[in-house]
Amino acid sequence: MNTEQILAEIREANLSYLMLAQTLIRSDREQALYRLGISEDTANTIGALTPAQTLKVAQGSTLLCRFRMDDELVWNLITSHGKSAANESVGRLHAAILLAGRHQEAA
Q1: Which CATH number goes with the domain that contains 40?
Q2: Is pLDDT above 80 for 84?
Q3: Per-position DSSP letters for 36-103, written without gaps between them
Q4: Percent of the chain at pLDDT exceeding 90
Q5: Whether residue 58 is found in the same domain as residue 87
């Protein structure tokens, strides 16, 4: 994959992310804040973007979304390689609780 292809993929991901974020924000703001891991101010900004602004922002070369799971504990909980289905469910629930706590701390 060359540089132009990578930039095109980033732009497409940005547009998809912004459109998803706007839909979530407009339909269920509290869920959007949690699921996207964004602040109220960011939600206000994204929710207020016009279609033209959305396209302009998406055309940047920087990926707008990022991984929220930035530590080994959460990654181990959500991947659960080689664990039984019951343990996998508990691991995912634990990861969701940790992420919810981080969202509350950030808010």
Answers
A1: 1.10.4000.10
A2: no
A3: HT--HHHHHHHHH--HHHHHHHHTSSS-S---S--SHHHHHHHH-TT--HHHHHHHHHHHHHHHHHHH
A4: 56
A5: no
The CA angle 38-13-66, to the nearest 5 degrees, is 40
Instruction: Quote the pTM value.
Output: 0.69
Which domain range does residue 107 map to?
A: 67-107
**How large is the angle between the packed helices 40-48 and 3-27, nearest 10 degrees?**
100
| pLDDT for res 37 | 87
CA distance 35 to 41: 15
CA distances (Å), 93 to each of 45, 97, 102, in order?
30, 6, 14
**31 and 73 part of one domain:** no
pLDDT tens digits for 58-71? 999 999 998 776 67
Domain count, the chain: 2
Residue 12 and residue 61 in one domain: yes
